[in-house]
What we know:
The protein contains 2 helices and no strands. With about 50 residues, it is mainly α. The chain has one domain. The radius of gyration is 15 Å and the shape is elongated.
Amino acid sequence: NGKSFADVNDARRRINSFIAEIYNKERLHSALGYRSPLEFEAAFKQNTMR
């Protein structure tokens, strides 16, 4: 987003937050059938609750 970091610790915290909050939730994974982790977990829950 073009914003700068206050220091190294700020950069680490914000990068880790981005990875956990956005990247891993939205990125499509080939090992999950090209679905996001959220989509995969929802499908898994639906199939195991039957």
